[in-house]
Amino acid sequence: MKRKSVVIPGFGLTTGVTLAILSVVVLIPLASLVVFSAQMSASEIIDVITRPRVLSSFKVSFLTAFVASLINAVMGVILAWVLVRYTFPLKRIVDGTIELPFALPTAVAGIALTALTADTGLIGGFFANFGIKIAFTRIGITVALVFIGIPFVVRAVQPVLEKLDPAYEEAAGVLGASRTRIFWKVILPELIPAIFTGFGLAFGRCLGEYGSVVFIAGNMPFETEIAPLIIMSELQEYDYSSATTIALVMLVASFVTLFLVNVVQNRNAKILKGGS
Amino acid sequence: MSAVTQSGLHRDTKGSKLVRYSLIGISLLFVFLMLILPLITVITEAFKQGFAVYSKAVTDDYTIKAILLTLEASFFAVAINTVFGLCAAWSLTKFKFKGKKILATLIDLPVTVSPIIAGLIFLLTFGRQSPIFPLLQDWDIKIVFAVPGIVLATIFVTFPFISRELIPVLESQGTDEEEAAALMGAKGFTIFRRITFPHIKWAFLYGVVLCAARAMGEFGAVSVISGHLRGKTNTLPLHVEILFNEFQYVPAFAVASILVMLAILILVARSVIEHKGRKK
């Protein structure tokens, strides 16, 4: 008699195929990054990272990704709120359009946003009247990153808002709290973990983003050069060790971001399970 | 605002109406400016010099070659990730074993890696400075700066897209039905085809659509690994970049408009699949 846990066939086959493909596509390539950087000495690594041009690219990358994700956190909550709580014409289309940054190739988004925000473009021309340049500045990079990051926040906040028990809001209303007060004191605290998750996912994605940024940034050293672009230009000069070093820093940064998101998400899942 | 400070109840409803319309207004404006307007820009720029210029750019030899290569890479990415996704989902949801959590984390890893770094790791694994490079040369296998590299990088960036859709569905479904079927003597593939697959049909299709969308649009990873050989290793997004950097704006946007249409198609397919899946 077989035991209950091994009744279903296919364990060996499916696990084997899973591990084989995982190894070839993910594990071995990622390991080669570790192996390659292990051949470098610590001083070499520090040398590369502390080059002024590299340091300033880190600054540009982190700053623009942070600002863009902040904007997305605010806009994402507004969009999620509008989509869950209100009915209005075109709602289904708006809901579907949120997903566009996932479906549209980043290079296409990049050239379209560049054409729009350049001085000759529709939006760029408008702001040029006030002496504000968007394309080829850090504002331009931020605009591209807002485009890339918006679905992450909306899709993180939307399901939580849908599941929120209206009883608490009604209770607060009966007790005489104003709508603004209900939002800040009752609704927002429930949303905070979801907002943080969306913010973290968007931030992680923005840190590594290349396709949409490379066109709109102008890529001026010390001004609008992002870290992925430095990796790219080191590769074009066949300086693989510098490229790998910078890549390693970015990889660690995105893993740390993801780890924090996971911690918050796990706590959030526990609260949601315990509450229902 | 000054007119709405009479009785408490009155103020409440009036205030909420004002808030409602301004929030809807802000949202519509944001969606229009950030998401719709770029799409319109691609189309208007593409047709700026008339239909003749547009159709010439779209039917150009290099464009056709880029379309074929994009289709090829997307096909392989969907095929490999389908095999992987089905196996991984089956293994992770139907059995209990040590290291399951680590395995699940490793599968999700590729989406957190920057596309540029995704390209870089394949360059390091199969490129000139790799220990296996002499071996590859002996067997005359080209991976870096060739089609296999592009295919590998595309599989990497779309790696968890199908398994990620299947695992939650299978997890909530449990293992009772499969166990019953197995005890009644059904073979593995029969169990999968007759019992498991009907449950995951829509989730699977959804994953395939997401995977295809990302695969055809991948830029950074493919850009690193391709070496930008025109007519040989140029995918559609890379072709757009080359044209744009050569200041051939109208052809660049014309080629981009193909990708826009594919993106809209994918969004429609996505919402249809989601709708059908939900009804079930």
Any descriptors?
heterodimer, A: 276 residues, mainly alpha, MetI-like fold, 13 helices, 0% strand, globular, B: 280 residues, 2 domains, disordered N terminus
Q: Which structural class do you get from the secondary structure elements of chain B?
A: mainly alpha
Distance between the termini of chain A: 40 Å
Question: What is the approximate shape of chain B?
Answer: globular
The low-pLDDT segments of chain B are 1-12
Q: Given the C-alpha coordinates, what overall shape of chain A results?
A: globular
CATH architecture classification of chain A: Orthogonal Bundle
Q: Say what oligomer this is.
A: heterodimer
Overview of this structure, please?
The complex is a heterodimer of chains A (276) and B (280). Chain A has 276 residues and is mostly helical. Helices cover 79% and strands 0% of the residues of chain A. Chain A contains 13 helices and no strands. Chain A has helices at residues 11-38, 42-49, 52-85, 91-97, 100-103, 106-117, 122-128, 138-163, 166-174, 179-208, 211-217, 227-236, 240-275. In chain A, helix 6 packs across helix 8 (138-163). The two termini of chain A are 40 Å apart. The mean pLDDT of chain A is 89. The longest helix of chain B has 39 residues, at 8-46. Chain B folds into two domains: 1-46; 50-279, MetI-like fold (Orthogonal Bundle). Chain B is built from 13 helices and no strands. At the A-B interface, helix 1, helix 3, helix 4, helix 5 and helix 6 of A face helix 1, helix 3, helix 4, helix 5 and helix 7 of B.
Topology:
The complex is a heterodimer of chains A (276) and B (280).
Chain A: H1 11-38, H2 42-49, H3 52-85, H4 91-97, H5 100-103, H6 106-117, H7 122-128, H8 138-163, H9 166-174, H10 179-208, H11 211-217, H12 227-236, H13 240-275
Helix pairs in contact in A: 1-13, 3-8, 3-10, 6-8, 6-11, 8-10, 8-11, 9-10, 10-13, 12-13
Chain B: H1 8-46, H2 50-58, H3 61-94, H4 100-108, H5 115-126, H6 133-138, H7 147-157, H8 161-173, H9 176-183, H10 188-217, H11 220-226, H12 236-245, H13 249-279
Helix pairs in contact in B: 1-13, 2-13, 3-7, 3-8, 3-10, 5-7, 5-11, 7-11, 8-10, 9-10, 10-13, 12-13
